[in-house]
Amino acid sequence: MAGKIKFQRWKDVAEIDKIAQEAEKIARGYRIYASSGKSEDRAAARKTWQQLSEKYWDLLFALVDAQTESFPSELTFSDEERLFIDFGFLSSEITPFNKDFDVKTSLNSRAVSGIFQYQSFSDFIAECWSMITNQECPPAVCGPSVETRLKEMGGQLEELEKKRDDEFRLIVSRSGGMEGAEANLLCADMSQYLISAIKVTLRTKEYREAPDDRKQIMSQERFRYSEAERVLGIQISIAQKNEEDPLGLPEAEMFQALHDSTKFLASKIVYVQQEEEKRLRRAKKIAGACSQFSQQMMRKELRNMLVKKKEYMAVPAKVARCEQSLLCPQDSPPVGFAPASALMEKLSGMDIDMFAVSRVRMYGVPRVIFIPGQGWGTYDWLDHTILLPMFPVTSIEKSLAYGLGTFRWDSDEDRVLKNTYENIKANRGKSILEMATSFYKDYFLWMTKEKEGYRILPRDTHKTFVQMFAPRKQAE
Description:
mainly alpha
């Protein structure tokens, strides 16, 4: 029985049973070829495994068709269905787990609250159906909702600001450069006007389209924040020059890093606020396009959306030059949503300018979808999503960096990066594809090694990356 593919909810659906039996038959043939030990059977084993891998999509479409036949208001998936859809698990005999694959932990892991909206592949399917049928999108199983993310990040920002304010009061009390009441007022201004300052600096839609009186208020609030920040810098300088008890350089740098972290987190909050507006606009557009569809046509549209995603889901394995299969491999455990998303937030924080590109202004921050299969991350231009395989090759850091690097390269519509990168002597004469592949590799090394202080890249490449990713002042 261990070799049987079973979905308890759909045990009486003939089409699912038929495909499952076909997959089980192919799997038996694969085991015979793989275990024969004969060199001539190796090619047959690879071919048979690819045939079995294709059954993933046949079985997925059959599962989706079975659930949408009753035209439910939302799609839901059981744990055994999620194991198949999100991890590529068929049965313990056909796709046995790696010894470190903790099923319960993997199914219950949830992404952290951050700038990205994280989804599993089953979450993505459920979202597509809700947009087609013009229903409220169900909450993602693997990641927090926008409301939860904003609430949690808002709480984190309050804690950071309190810590910064306490540190600042301590510093000025040592230097005597500012009275307690003045310090309290400065700290209050910085907390009160931070979000407005970020919105004006980023020239968000809220600021650009605000009535003149509201726009003037936001501009004044930004000015008050800038003034408070200027005075803060003066006070830190005074503290460093204090003859009796000077503030050391390491302490000053630590305080500056703490202050910068409040601005970065506030920027993430503003990006998430904008992302929700753009998501609702996208959902409304899809719902409008499907509003005159019959139920059968809506079901077909869901399949069409999955077929489009299928093409991009093959890219991670191609880029990593590994087995192009969405089935669960035995040689490695899956990534956890929580640690992978935490690392994704850390890496994206090293390249904050990526969120200032025109595609983010137009479509919002790209969603991150964890997909079954192996490989390195990639960016789906058509759907504005970063795809991360559940079973990364080499390391999770490389997979995430490749996902961000692909987004960086593909969203560089103004050729800010491309024109600079192609002038590196080693890159001259390369094709567009070769150039992109080279960039992903260098970007990975830049983010995971160079940013940590290790000199890995060739001298010319290092200088070019310093130039490309130097902090740029936002347009006023």
